[in-house]
Amino acid sequence: MNDSHAVVVGGGIGGLSAALALRRHGWRVTVLERAPELREVGAGLTLMANALRGLDALGLGPAVRCGDHAEAPGGIRDRRGRWLSRVDGAEMIRQLGTAALGVHRATLHRILRDALPASSVRTGTDVEQVGSGPDHAEVRYRGPDGPQTLAADLVVGADGLRSRLRAQLWPEIPAPVYAGSTAWRTAIAFSEPVPAAITWGPAAEFGMVPLGGGQVYWYAALTAPPGGHAPDELAAVREQLGDWHAPIPALLAATPPGVLLRNDIHHLATPLPSYVRGRVALLGDAAHAMTPNLGQGAGQAIEDAVVLGAVCAGGAEGLPAALAAYDRLRRPRSQAIARAAFRAGRYGQQLRNPLAVAVRDTALRLTPARAALRGMARYADWLPPAEPS
């Protein structure tokens, strides 16, 4: 132990990954989570090769892979079920070294949480102020026992899309903006095999990911005004997409009432000029909230965490140079992926004009599968930094 102390604000996937990465390099870590208990709200996600390599670097790769995960070929279809582009699983492994993996968010969160000592996590904590001086930082929060102050050598802002730390320390950056789409998502029991596939229709998208263990994660997204709600959200999805190709109607029929989450999609449209201010570093959605169109939100948060841990391996000594390295290594890549994800949504799910849709679909059908996979692989092709000797 080097006795350097880091306070991580936020106990989601990015925050817990950062806490583990720093602990692996000798830091004492305190995680402050606003919720009264440490749990993940959500459905499923896809872990690409970069995310799996990051979890390997945290020592959690085997735990994530050991479940009954289904591997199924997939790709992109139109609403009648015709394949526009197929993913060759063997070719993906050849290019990236591993296939993508579907996992429930709660499962990944539990694996991360269980790898941390319970004493390092404080729930029910509302962070009110963070101060950062040349030699130390200070976090003021209100917890179950009233106002508290924690001294730290490093503060990690992993407090998500509506990050208070970002708003406090980067007041010139506008709040996240609506990306133009609303999305429904859930994970359900479903015994029939399904591919990991996306279906595009005019201004609409449906995705399905097998999670293994007889579970399937599905989501739907529509271009719509923000703030919409329906008395019966499942009925609203069925009305829009219920006549699409199989197994979409069966997945909707197998979804119990009351399990569907609906959220408008927001992103950080104004990129941060730096992820670092003093002794505070942002990561994950707090730093680069992106649309989900490339499936890289969790993967980029895990990458952030692994790199932050690696550059801070020397402890608090030399921290300014370490945080400068973190910003240099992470900001260009994560912001480029955020831009690409937004573009992917514009030319994918949000495309509405029939002629434009026909041109896009034809271009996809004519693109060789290997070339399409190379285009996807450039986002997933990432290696963690070498461990310091």
Description:
The chain has 389 residues and is an alpha/beta fold. The chain has a domain at 5-67 and 103-176 and 267-347: FAD/NAD(P)-binding domain (3-Layer(bba) Sandwich), CATH 3.50.50. The protein has helices at 13-24, 49-57, 61-65, 89-96, 105-114, 164-169, 233-241, 248-253, 285-288, 297-311, 319-347, 354-366, 369-380; strands at residues 5-9, 28-32, 44-47, 74-78, 83-87, 101-104, 121-122, 126-132, 137-143, 146-152, 154-157, 177-189, 197-201, 204-212, 215-223, 261-267, 276-277, 280-282. It has a seven-stranded mixed beta sheet with strand order 5-4-13-14-15-12-16, with helices on both faces. A six-stranded mixed beta sheet has the order 7-2-1-11-18-17. Helix 1 packs parallel to helix 10 (297-311). The relative contact order is 0.19. The model has no long low-confidence stretch (mean pLDDT 94).
Globally, the shape reads globular
Rg from alpha-carbon coordinates: 21 Å
CATH class of the domain at 5-67 and 103-176 and 267-347: Alpha Beta
Strand order of the largest sheet: 5-4-13-14-15-12-16
Largest sheet: 7 strands, mixed
Number of strands: 18
Number of helical segments with 4 or more residues: 13
**How far apart lie the N and C ends?**
15 Å
Q: What name does CATH use for the topology of the domain at 5-67 and 103-176 and 267-347?
A: FAD/NAD(P)-binding domain
Query: What is the fourth-level CATH superfamily of the domain at 5-67 and 103-176 and 267-347?
Result: FAD/NAD(P)-binding domain
Write the CATH architecture name of the domain at 5-67 and 103-176 and 267-347.
3-Layer(bba) Sandwich
Structural class: alpha/beta
The stretches of 5 or more residues where confidence is low (pLDDT under 50) are none
Give the percentage of residues in beta strands: 25-35%
What value does the average pLDDT take?
A: 94
Helix content: 25-40%
